[in-house]
Amino acid sequence: MKVLDQIKNYADILRLTKLKNEPEVVLHQAQIDKPSYQEFALLLLQREVQHRRKTDLERRLKLARLPKDHNLDKYDFNMANGMSVPQLKQLRELLWLEQNYNLILMGPSGTGKTYVAAGLVNDAVKSGHKAYFITMEELVTVLKMKEMTSTALNTYNRLLKAHLVAIDDIMLFPIKKHEAVAFFNLINHLHEQTSVIITTNKSPQQWAEMLDDEVLATALLDRLLFKCEVVKLTGKSYRMENRKTIFEQ
């Protein structure tokens, strides 16, 4: 067996993916740079660590299930929705996450609630946290199916172990009593150990109507609002203001 093949084989056994896939590149660069033995060993380890961090971040971002638009670096402050530059900057520092605070983003459709929630999940993942984005509709399906499918159960277990869970469009549609109870049980489990971001176009007072259970709604709000910042977004829909058309202007 050639030396290069042996390197690939041993790298595979040791799970040194970068070295396994690119030994020629590493050796060619070493022939040019002529590093010392110590420098060459350090280079190999640095490449592997960087590769693993990159693939781990890509894996966690995929698991976060973010919507297409979620980069808060591109946030449009020209949109008059009540979100200020200092306010968003403070949210992006994630100190509230480290203190297990919740966020409720409340406002009409199109005012940036989902964009901000997804962007904060993106920031949290890149900061090393376990963070996930899920719509209320998707969550209800997970709660119903977790006893029946491994996919739903795995998703549910990830939520239980998360540092941050963003739930989009809560109370957009009425939910059945057993679904509401399952949702309460999840929130009760996450209470004070996981930060939760809620986006909703309904006021807390309207939650009881959507759940058709004032006691359950009160208990749910009691846990969410205990350590919580409520951010009210206002204004017209960003999507309608920037609506695309197929016709020439």
TrEMBL record:
GO terms for molecular function: ATP binding. SMART domains: AAA. Keywords: ATP-binding, Nucleotide-binding. One of its GO terms (biological process) is DNA replication. CDD domains: AAA. InterPro entries: AAA+_ATPase, DNAC/IstB-like, IstB, IstB_ATP-bd, P-loop_NTPase. Residues 99-234 form the AAA+ ATPase domain. Belongs to the IS21/IS1162 putative ATP-binding protein family. NCBIfam families: IS21_help_AAA (NF038214). This is Chromosomal replication initiator protein DnaA.
